[in-house]
Every structure is written in C-alpha cells, then in structure tokens.
Amino acid sequence: MLLALIVFAMAVVRSFFSPEKTRAALSGRRAGVGNVMAAGLGVLTPFCSCSAVPLFIGFVSAGIPLGVTFSFLIAAPMVNEVALVLLFGLVGWQVALSYLGFGLAVAIAAGYVIGRLRLEGWLQDWVREIHAGGAVQAPLGGGLTVVERYRQGIAAVREIFTRVWVWIILGIGMGALIHGYVPEALMARIMGADAWWSVPAAVVIGIPMYTNAAGVIPIVEALLGKGAALGTVLAFMMSVIALSLPEMIILRQVLTLRLIAVFIGVVASGILAVGFLFNALF
Length: 282
Prior knowledge:
By secondary structure, the chain is mostly helical. The protein is elongated and about 65 Å long. The protein has one domain. The protein contains 15 helices and no strands. Helices cover 75% and strands 0% of the residues.
C-alpha cells in the first residue's frame, strides 16, 4: 500500500516538473547540499529499511541523483526520533546525540561517495530508463488536466508496482521469520571481546537480521547489560537496520548486484568507523 501510494504521488508531482529541472536542483555543485537535505528528511521519517525502499524508488523515478537518494535510504531507518529517544533513556544524551551526529555523517558521506562514483548505469534497466526521464511525458507547465496527471500516476503504479511487489513481500516475510531470534549470550561474548575484529564481527552478524530502530533497542540493552562494548553494539545496531538482508532482497529489483555491493561496502565502512570511534571515546 505504501509503495503504490508513494509511486502514484511521485508520478503526479513529477508531471509538474521536467526531469532536467529536478536533477538540476539536487545535482552538480549542490550534490552535497542534496545529501544533507535527504539525510535530514530521513531523520524525520520513522521508516524501517523495507518501508524506506518505496520512497527510494519514488525519488529515483523522479530523476533525483542516485547519491542523494542513498543518503535518504540510509538515514531513514538508521536515525530517527524513536531510536534517539530510546537511546537517550538507555545510555544518556551524550551517546544519543553522538549517534545522531555519526549516523547522519554516515548517511551523508556514503550518499556523496556513491553519487561521485556516478553509478547510475548500475541501476536495473527499467529503473535507469525512468531515471533518465523516459517515463516523464510532460514538462513544467505542460498544460495537463488533473485527470491526465492522475492517469500518469496510475500508469506509474502499474509499471513499478508489478515489478517489485512480490520481492517486497518476500523481503518482509524473511524478516518476520528471523525477527526475535537473537542469540544474545553468544553475541555478547563476541561483542565484548577486546579485539579489533569484534566490530567487524558485529556488523557481519547484524546484516542477516532484521528489525527497525525501536525493535533493536531491547537487544542493544540486553547486550550492554552483558558487558558488550558500546561501539561494537552500536555498529551491530546500525548494520541491522541499515544493511538488513530483507532490504537487500527488495533493492535487488532496483539495483544490480554490483551497485548493491558498492552500497554495502560504503555503508559498512562508515559503520565500522563509528564502532571503532565509539569504543575509543566511551
């Protein structure tokens, strides 16, 4: 339902703007500003990773630069008011604010790096055609009636929704199967290890799991209570909600495997840096 609504709304809005004007507003010399704006929007939208994907598709289809859309995709699930309030109650305002700052930094930097790599050619063919503006029929002020704009929205829903709805259900279903199965004792031993590999191990463990920012907080609390290092636990938290396997399954219908690998690599690098830094500071 979210996917259909977002695609319809984005198609109607897109009918008022040419793809050239949309891209010009958020690309080129203003790409960094676009990344900051997209990450800030992500903080204000309390979506899990699977819920953020429909908005990601809508942004791409509107011609918004790829790196900017990735900044939103990363920030939306990883940094939101729910996670910040729960972290504040759990570990204090210093850690909560630090998490906010580093989470935004990861989203902005990762999106900027992906944008500078210019990997639009690694989108799936049908998405690349939309991103290039092939599905947009009307420029700014094209004189379309309201009914014609709605028809464009319905056509966009048919085009995109029929391609990805099965994979969204599959991804969420897989998340439901593994939700709640967290071997806390084993993970606490790994994350409490005084070794350099504890942070990378936490990220690797977190990727196959799935929950949202609010759902992972009780796990974080349990791990900290068993002596796990704060930075290692936060790295685990970030990987669970920003690099979950169900999200990758859904994104596979939008991105090629090469682009997914770049996305995972760039974001994981930022998460590792945050984990090591938190361990050093707290």
